């Protein structure tokens, strides 16, 4: 078979790229298409594939300002030629799912999220205070057109896979399409506890995108004065560093070995955003560490809260909370996070590392690989018939 894998952009190894890496392992001879590619920014497995980029690759300042080219991305993704391909596997959180192809080609989309920039998180990305007057004005004008295009081109997908039940609902809401849930992979072989001595600090690992709400964590730990380590970089790096007190340490992006060491030594992992899934939550749990998470979105599918922060409306069965892996807070404010941290301190002794590890093992990369392979094989067989 001739297979194409499509991914929005190749600029770093985050959650979406960890899924992409599995796709590249499954189909080592596949062609890889992406709007742009910063060389050596992704893993050797991904880099080993023939990578085809769009005209956006050659635009000015593309390495740091590619999101400002969002209005051009629909045109760019539609200019790829997929004639002769038997299977397209798109890995999409922006426009990758909108590729054009003929009826002979089966298109399966692994959807990390419908394009959050134009739907429910528009103001967080393109509010005047966030992006500036001119980009905010331009995007407000273009937003209705982009929404219509995004919804219309969802019909080019034969089968959607959602990375969580949360995303499945959003696919139904914005695209009117059904989706099968296959949770993203966690490398529990890599993220395995060792004998490192436990430290006395809290940890966050995150891109500094607006919806991640790293600012809430900075505000909370400024108030508490507790030792807090932040691993990550991104567009909000400058403001976050300015507001942080002396108890907060910024590490930038680190390699997996260093991140693993920090997971092992932290008291708890902190997660403040409403995430579509949240692989870092499970990486921390795979290391046996409890988490303090905002109780919405994908966290409801990856964290088992303690009895005092469990709520029936989360949809988590009450019988599961006998083996908690973390605590929730439900208001996206620094005060709510402070209370959750203080509550965590009062119940910290109840968290069992082996129980937390067993919970995370359900999301291992081998489980993801088998489910993706089986899903694709079944749909290919039906498509041929």
Description:
The chain is 39% helix and 15% strand. It is α/β, with parallel strands linked by helices and 385 residues long. The protein has 2 domains: 203 residues, Rossmann fold (3-Layer(aba) Sandwich), CATH 3.40.50; 160 residues, Glycogen Phosphorylase B (Rossmann fold, 3-Layer(aba) Sandwich). The strands form 2 sheets. Strands 3-2-1-4-5-6-7 form a 7-stranded parallel β-sheet, sandwiched between helices. Helix 12 links the parallel strand 11 and strand 12. The longest helix has 21 residues. The model has no long low-confidence stretch (mean pLDDT 93).
Point out poorly predicted stretches: none
Give me the Rg, rounded.
Answer: 21 Å
User: What average pLDDT do the residues reach?
Assistant: 93
Task: Compute the separation of the termini in Å.
Answer: 16 Å
Q: How many helical elements?
A: 16
Q: Level of helix content?
A: 25-40%
Q: How many β-strands, per DSSP?
A: 13
């Amino acid at each position: 078979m001739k297979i194409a894998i499509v991914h929005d952009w190749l600029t770093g190894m985050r959650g979406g790229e960890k899924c992409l890496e599995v796709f590249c392992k499954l189909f080592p001879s596949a062609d890889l298409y992406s709007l742009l590619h910063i060389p050596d920014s992704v893993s050797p497995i991904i880099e080993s594939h023939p990578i085809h980029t769009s005209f956006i690759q050659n635009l000015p300042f593309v390495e740091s300002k590619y999101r400002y080219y969002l209005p051009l991305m629909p045109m760019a993704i539609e200019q790829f030629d997929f004639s002769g391909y038997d299977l397209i596997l798109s890995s999409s959180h922006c426009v990758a799912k909108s590729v054009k192809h003929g009826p002979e080609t089966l298109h399966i989309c692994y959807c990390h999220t419908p394009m959050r920039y134009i739907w429910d998180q528009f103001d967080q990305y393109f509010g005047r205070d966030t992006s500036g007057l001119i980009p905010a004005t331009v995007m407000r004008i273009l937003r209705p057109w982009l929404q219509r295009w995004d919804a219309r081109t969802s019909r080019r997908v034969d089968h959607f896979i959602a990375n969580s039940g949360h995303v499945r609902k959003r696919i139904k809401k914005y695209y009117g399409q059904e989706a099968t849930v296959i949770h993203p992979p966690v490398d529990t072989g890599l993220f395995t506890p060792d004998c490192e001595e436990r430290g006395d600090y809290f940890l966050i690992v995150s891109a500094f995108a607006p919806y991640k709400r790293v600012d809430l964590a900075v505000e909370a730990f400024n108030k508490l004065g507790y030792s807090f380590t932040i691993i990550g970089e991104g567009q909000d790096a400058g403001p976050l560093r300015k507001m942080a007190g002396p108890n907060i340490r910024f590490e930038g992006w680190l390699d997996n070995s260093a991140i693993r060491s920090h997971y092992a030594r932290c008291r708890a992992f902190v997660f403040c955003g409403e995430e579509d899934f949240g692989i870092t939550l499970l990486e921390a749990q795979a290391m046996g560490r409890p988490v303090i998470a905002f109780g919405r979105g994908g966290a409801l599918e990856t964290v088992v809260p303690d009895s005092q922060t469990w709520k029936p409306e989360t949809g988590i069965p009450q019988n599961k909370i006998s083996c908690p892996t973390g605590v929730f807070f439900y208001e996206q404010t620094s005060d709510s996070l402070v209370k959750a941290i203080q509550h965590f301190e009062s119940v910290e002794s109840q968290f069992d590392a082996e129980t937390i590890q067993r919970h995370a093992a359900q999301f291992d990369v081998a489980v993801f690989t088998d489910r993706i392979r089986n899903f694709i094989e079944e749909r290919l067989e039906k498509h041929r018939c």
